Write a sequence for this structure.
């Protein structure tokens, strides 16, 4: 009996080691391998469950509400608005609808299917895919500003990499447009909120606190004028040749429930759609 | 622990129910950072009833599912769920009591540990790490623990778990 227990214990340890080994192997494999496995799992085992989640999301913040927002004068809607969470949701949807009307770039509206892992804000699972015309490298925005970029596209869903992802980079400038830099997630450890950094700013340039930072359009992925955030402090100077600024992001990917995926953004600025009265 | 075929069927039904709740009820909570994680709860309930090796394998499978849905760093979820599943089953065999509070504490600790391992294995920017570990993770652990305690109370006969009063 004791021998059986020992062999079972060895069996347990062996299974643990195999699973840990496979996990570490997946962690150290190139990102493309993980993405390929994830795509296969999402398109097979998870299809019915993601369908259920999509229906659940739709029933919570119904797509019909988005489509009928402008005609929401009935008393039921007013009663619903009295609930703080739904009221907040409604405000966001109204803002998204207003943004959609102002945008001249074609776009696809999508729901965000939030997941339970704490890294959920770094990538987002979106409810629109190639069927809706979504392509890799399409920018993802919310009414507040830049969320990220589409990384993987499947038939009816896509995965976006947000600005909180360690690999995120975007070319940006400080309004009115005389200081350029590269936006990347902040690497500070003690912070209590997710921040961005404006890196690579020439040492001779300085950016005052409170300055808005928008995308420059360089690189061709993000259209110019997309709000990124606001400068909150000077972070560091690297050996006297560059300055780094901390930016409070305009949009929070962890809290966003609906987004717009911009299709084929051109070189024209989208700033008027986000700040119709203030930006050029 | 030997599980009879009828018990296994009921256990699978209970786990299936948690899987359904994860994709239907969880999105309705509104705040994804604090909503209970029914998928992890399914793993913890399974681990309480299983040997450490089986719990590690189940953890790996659930972790791969989680990594597929949140592909920020593929493998981090698999590693975290494997370790949490194994430790839960091992701890249950060694010193956990059949008590609702203790099981609730296991759910709380399991969720927090899972989040810690995922964040550490994912690496990347440190901003927000403390906020995740000290604010959002404890809140998610709390809602998961409460959901788990309610689930155990309702399904203790199905799960064949004796809970001391």
């Amino acid at each position: 009996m004791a021998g059986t227990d020992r062999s079972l214990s060895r069996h347990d340890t062996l299974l643990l080691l195999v699973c840990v080994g496979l996990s570490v192997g997946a962690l150290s494999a190139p990102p493309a391998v993980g993405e390929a496995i994830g795509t296969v799992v999402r398109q097979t085992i998870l299809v019915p469950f993601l369908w259920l989640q999509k229906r659940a999301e739709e029933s919570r913040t119904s797509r019909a509400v988005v489509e009928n927002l402008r005609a929401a004068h009935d008393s039921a809607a007013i009663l619903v608005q009295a609930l703080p969470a739904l009221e907040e949701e409604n405000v966001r949807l109204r803002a998204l609808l207003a943004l959609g009307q102002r945008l001249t770039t074609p776009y696809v509206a999508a729901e965000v299917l939030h997941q339970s892992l704490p890294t959920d804000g770094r990538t987002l699972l979106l409810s629109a895919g190639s069927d809706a015309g979504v392509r890799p490298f399409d920018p993802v925005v919310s009414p507040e500003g830049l969320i990220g970029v589409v990384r993987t596209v499947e038939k009816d869903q896509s995965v976006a990499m947000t600005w909180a992802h360690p690999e995120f980079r975007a070319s940006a400038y400080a309004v009115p447009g005389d200081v350029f830099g590269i936006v990347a997630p902040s690497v500070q450890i003690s912070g209590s909120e997710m921040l961005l950094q404006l890196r690579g700013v020439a040492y001779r340039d300085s950016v005052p606190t409170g300055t808005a930072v928008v995308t420059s359009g360089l690189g061709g992925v993000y259209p110019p004028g997309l709000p990124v955030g606001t400068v909150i402090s000077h972070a560091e100077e690297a050996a006297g040749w560059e300055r780094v600024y901390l930016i409070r992001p305009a949009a929070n990917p962890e809290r966003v429930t609906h987004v717009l995926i911009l299709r084929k953004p051109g070189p024209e600025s989208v700033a008027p759609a986000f700040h119709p009265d203030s930006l050029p | 622990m030997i599980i009879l075929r009828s018990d296994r069927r009921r256990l699978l039904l209970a786990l299936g129910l948690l899987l359904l709740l994860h994709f239907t009820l969880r999105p309705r909570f509104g705040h994804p950072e604090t909503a209970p994680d029914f998928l992890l709860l399914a793993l913890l309930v399974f681990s309480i009833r299983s040997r450490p090796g089986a719990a590690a394998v189940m953890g790996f499978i659930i972790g791969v599912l989680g990594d597929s849905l949140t592909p920020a760093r593929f493998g981090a979820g698999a590693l975290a769920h494997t370790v949490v599943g194994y430790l839960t089953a091992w701890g249950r065999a060694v010193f956990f009591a059949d008590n609702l509070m203790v099981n609730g504490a296991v759910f709380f600790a399991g969720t927090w540990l899972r989040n810690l391992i995922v964040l550490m294995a994912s690496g990347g920017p440190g901003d927000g790490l403390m906020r995740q570990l000290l604010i959002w993770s404890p809140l998610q652990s709390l809602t998961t623990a409460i959901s788990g305690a309610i689930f155990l109370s309702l399904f203790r006969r199905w799960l064949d778990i004796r809970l001391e009063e």
Summary: Residues 129-159 of chain B form the longest helix (31 residues). The mean pLDDT of chain B is 86. Chain B touches chain A through 63 residues (CB under 8 Å). The radius of gyration of chain B is 15 Å.
